[in-house]
Amino acid sequence: MPRSSLPRNILLRRSTRSLPIQTPRPIASRSITTTTSSSSPSSSNPRQDAPSTSTSSFSTINASEISHFSSLSSQWWDETGEFKLLHRMNPTRIEYIRQKVALGPSEGEEWTFENRHSDFTRESKRGTGLWLSGKRCLDVGCGGGLLSESLARLGGQVVGVDASESNIGIATTHAQQDPSLSTKMQNGELKFVHSSAEVLRDAGEKFDVVCAMEVLEHVDQPGEFMKCLGQMVKPGGHLILSTISRTPLSQLLTLTLAEDVLRLVTPGTHTYWKFVKPLELRRFVYSDMGGYDTWHRNEDASDIRTEEVGETRGIVYDPLAGKWKLWGGVEGSTWKEVGEGCNYMYHARKRV
Amino acid sequence: MRANVSLLSVPRASGKTLCPRPLSLPSASRSSINHHPRSLHTPPSSLVGRDVRTSPCNPQAILLSRTSVGGTRNHSSSPAVEPPAAIPEISEENSYDIVIIGGANAGLAFACALLSQPTISSTTKILLLEGSSLDKTRNWSGEGDWENRISSLTWENISWLETIGVWKHIEQSRSCPVEEMIIWANPSPNSFPTIHFPPLGHPMARMTENMNLQRALLRRIEEIGKGKVDLKEGKKVQEMRLGEGQRWVGLRVGETEWIKGSLVVGADGPNSPVRLFSKIETYGHAYQTHAVVATLNHPLSPLYPNTTAFQRFLPTGPIAFLPLSSEASTMVWSTLPLHAAALKRLSPEALTLMVNCGYQLPESTLTALTDEMIRADQLGQPFSANRINELLASLPIPGNTVGETDQPILPPTITSIHAPSVASFPLRLSHANEYLGQRTALVGDAAHTIHPLAGQGLNQGLADVRCLAEVLENTWKLGGDLGSITSLADYPRERYPLNHLILSTTDKLHYIFRARNGIVNWFRGTGLEIINELGPLKKLLMGGAGAQPNITTRGELSKSRKDDEREFGRVRGAGDELGQIGGWQMTAANGVESWFTIKGVAKMAGEVGVGLVREGMRKAVGALDNRNK
């Protein structure tokens, strides 16, 4: 079975160098940005000027992506505008975080059916109130602070990081105007920092919950980025991502429909070849980020997901209800994979 | 006054309302972020509504302003006013997550609903603001004369109130079960279509004084809401303004005190100041109808338990008879404003007679009598009891004499009326265009008002607050911003269509039952007869009306007799001079019911058969496979 580092197709397309399989490499996949591929669908994008120089303060940030989101930053909190779908997605993401962080088994607790499929008693005992209190959370690529604000309301001590200064400005102003969040900002329970994940990692910061929502598809070297996130997770902590898969379905929904036809999202926001498939992500965490020594295996799928770490779960927009829903389905089934064909969540938990 | 009320609404297509909209802000511009800080004062005349007891805000005094409204579109059309002084710094203890405006049914119930939600009740600060004192509610004794504000609580809502711990505070002796319901219209002596809703095994609804419910809600809040729900009484909202960045609403109560709320919930009655602040328009129309209410006394009946609600549809509107206790009932007579005024001017004795006539006289005779009443009233000599008796003796009564019309079951004949309870109020249908404004939400009468003929007004309000509390719990549990449109969107998505359905159905019923012409009469008569004879359809109607037959009941209700044992409220064979209901209609009804039974049984049998065949085939295929191996 081929064990992959991050997007294999990307590698083949983007680099002339073939990569040794099963060998942990310091810099994965898209790190080689010096070679240009003419087959890339949007190679006119000036993404090549990403800071991949061999300086010590290495960063996965893509400059053109940052300028793109900076230009949109004033619209972050317009609930009916550009980020309408993102606003609606937020509760569903938090619900996923809740299922994993609050309702999942505590450290040392035995895995039972109830742990994984929470019942009403468990839910009302652990999943209500300030279920995130005392947890240190990192929101990488916080944008206008949609997720950070919610995490802070739930009692978490939240640090929001974004590479765009204007985003940080928007997020700070917005949180300060909220009566309850402004006190949290004064107490240092909610911080917005103009920085990058790598800088925080180098500063030795550790978090109980590390989130990177819709970021993986915008960074330059997803492998490096993932490793950086993994290093910031405390033992027993959670790594939670949301991103987009690289399938014909995501091409149709995210690029063709949402961007080109319906114009729900500004065209050029997403790039198809930057998307990462769920399988690639799970395998990468296994092969390049420490495997089962560092991460819990997915107990729901321990018999079928060997050499893979974590759980992926589709997140699907229901236009009739006007909200996003977590896709169900049995691990390993086609039905579940169909649901992960576009947007999906990823969760992995670090061992103590 | 009508013109003033209608100012708050969008003119209906029929052009019933007279004035243009005072707040012609396009709804689209409400949601967009604009940066033109200025305020918009509405002409004070548009704020003078009809007096609403529970409205905590003084509509005349409220200054409607917000830091940012509209775009440049109506810049020229509205008077440019200097931006008001900045909101002073609001202290921490005056900052709330949820501010409820209005301490009547909807407001108090909303506070209780919020307290029943685990996350909301444990982590938010809630304020309930009531313009008048709540002492009258708090100190309501639960005995003595009946209030004239009485509502029917549906079984569904009673069950909910039980689960959130409110129902135990209700004064049970003052809450009367409605076991069955009889609705009829008799446009001519030979035609009296009737719907009879038989007993379900539990009450369809309970007639409860609003004070009784409000006191129970208040007691529940004081029981478990210490430190969670702050009550501020006697504080009128003088001014409302959106805060910086539209992240909160500032409310000025009194001269200098400001309160901050992330979400402001308007439970402040039909002329809701919160709705005005949110620039939400309503549409609807006033009925040319006023409702007269009164408490009726009648002797204890050995034959009928007083648990039957009656409603008769007259050409002027419905007259309802709703039980309160074994010896008292309440009346809601919806009729033309002129008639209502005349009825109110009658002496208690004369009114007693008129009410009896209202239930018992054939329609033509009653019309003649009310015509006489109006004539006398216009001459300045209201009817006396003697005059009515004279007229009754002289007026032609088709068929029978008073009390023996064709309608087989009538409400008990009343002996007196509790004079101070007589009151009247205008009826109006209205529905807000939206339930959500910027950081505001509307519940109950602030969002919709309805004709009382179906007794749904309060029940809709309770369903609203229940839904909104659930939506807020789900939002807060997931760290959402309580006042944002995205978080609250589920509330109108669930409630708006349902409320609209109830409002429009009630509206249509009002017109259908009022109309008197041959075709409508025939359709109505036949329709009602069909509905009455079709058990399943009737059950559906009752289920839809909020009475849920499948809810298990408490022990006390099991005493009520079964449907089979009674007929139109009386025990079968108990000196029934009317004889058994029978004939071809009964045969037809039985036939229809048998048909449904046979169909159901046949379907079940068919499914079993198909299952057997399928299983057999599967086994056969399996056997073949094995043999082939």
UniProtKB/TrEMBL annotation, chain A:
Bilayer topology term: Peripheral membrane protein
Main location: mitochondrion
Enzyme nomenclature, EC number: 2.1.1.64, 2.1.1.-, 2.1.1.114
Positions bound to S-adenosyl-L-methionine: R93, G141, D162, M213
GO biological process, alphabetically ordered: methylation
Keywords: Magnesium, Membrane, Metal-binding, Methyltransferase, Mitochondrion, Mitochondrion inner membrane, S-adenosyl-L-methionine, Transferase, Ubiquinone, Ubiquinone biosynthesis
Subcellular location: Mitochondrion inner membrane
Amino acid composition bias (Low complexity), ranges on this chain: 29-44
Catalytic activity: a 3,4-dihydroxy-5-(all-trans-polyprenyl)benzoate + S-adenosyl-L-methionine = a 4-hydroxy-3-methoxy-5-(all-trans-polyprenyl)benzoate + S-adenosyl-L-homocysteine + H(+); a 3-demethylubiquinone + S-adenosyl-L-methionine = a ubiquinone + S-adenosyl-L-homocysteine; a 3-demethylubiquinol + S-adenosyl-L-methionine = a ubiquinol + S-adenosyl-L-homocysteine + H(+)
Enzyme class: transferase
Pathway: Cofactor biosynthesis; ubiquinone biosynthesis
Function according to Swiss-Prot or TrEMBL: O-methyltransferase required for two non-consecutive steps during ubiquinone biosynthesis. Catalyzes the 2 O-methylation of 3,4-dihydroxy-5-(all-trans-polyprenyl)benzoic acid into 4-hydroxy-3-methoxy-5-(all-trans-polyprenyl)benzoic acid. Also catalyzes the last step of ubiquinone biosynthesis by mediating methylation of 3-demethylubiquinone into ubiquinone. Also able to mediate the methylation of 3-demethylubiquinol into ubiquinol.
Annotated protein name in UniProt: Ubiquinone biosynthesis O-methyltransferase, mitochondrial
Native species: Kwoniella mangroviensis CBS 10435
The encoding gene: COQ3
Automatic annotation (TrEMBL), chain B:
Reactions performed catalytically: a 2-methoxy-6-(all-trans-polyprenyl)phenol + 2 reduced [2Fe-2S]-[ferredoxin] + O2 + 2 H(+) = a 2-methoxy-6-(all-trans-polyprenyl)benzene-1,4-diol + 2 oxidized [2Fe-2S]-[ferredoxin] + H2O; a 4-hydroxy-3-(all-trans-polyprenyl)benzoate + 2 reduced [2Fe-2S]-[ferredoxin] + O2 + 2 H(+) = a 3,4-dihydroxy-5-(all-trans-polyprenyl)benzoate + 2 oxidized [2Fe-2S]-[ferredoxin] + H2O
Biased composition (Low complexity): 20-32
Limits of the FAD-binding domain: 97-330, 422-475
Presence of the UniProt keyword Oxidoreductase in the record: yes
GO CC list: extrinsic component of mitochondrial inner membrane
UniProt cofactor(s): FAD
Pfam family, one: FAD_binding_3
Cellular location(s): Mitochondrion inner membrane
Alphabetized UniProt keyword annotations: FAD, Flavoprotein, Membrane, Mitochondrion, Mitochondrion inner membrane, Monooxygenase, Oxidoreductase, Ubiquinone, Ubiquinone biosynthesis
MF GO annotations: 2-methoxy-6-polyprenolphenol 4-hydroxylase activity; 4-hydroxy-3-all-trans-polyprenylbenzoate oxygenase activity; FAD binding; oxidoreductase activity, acting on paired donors, with incorporation or reduction of molecular oxygen, reduced flavin or flavoprotein as one donor, and incorporation of one atom of oxygen
Membrane-topology descriptor: Peripheral membrane protein
Function (record text): FAD-dependent monooxygenase required for two non-consecutive steps during ubiquinone biosynthesis. Required for the C5-ring hydroxylation during ubiquinone biosynthesis by catalyzing the hydroxylation of 4-hydroxy-3-(all-trans-polyprenyl)benzoic acid to 3,4-dihydroxy-5-(all-trans-polyprenyl)benzoic acid. Also acts downstream of coq4, for the C1-hydroxylation during ubiquinone biosynthesis by catalyzing the hydroxylation of 2-methoxy-6-(all-trans-polyprenyl)phenol to 2-methoxy-6-(all-trans-polyprenyl)benzene-1,4-diol.
Family assignment from sequence similarity: Belongs to the UbiH/COQ6 family.
Subunit structure, interactors included: Component of a multi-subunit COQ enzyme complex, composed of at least COQ3, COQ4, COQ5, COQ6, COQ7 and COQ9.
Stated name of the protein: Ubiquinone biosynthesis monooxygenase COQ6, mitochondrial
Lineage, broadest ranks: Eukaryota, Fungi, Dikarya, Basidiomycota, Agaricomycotina
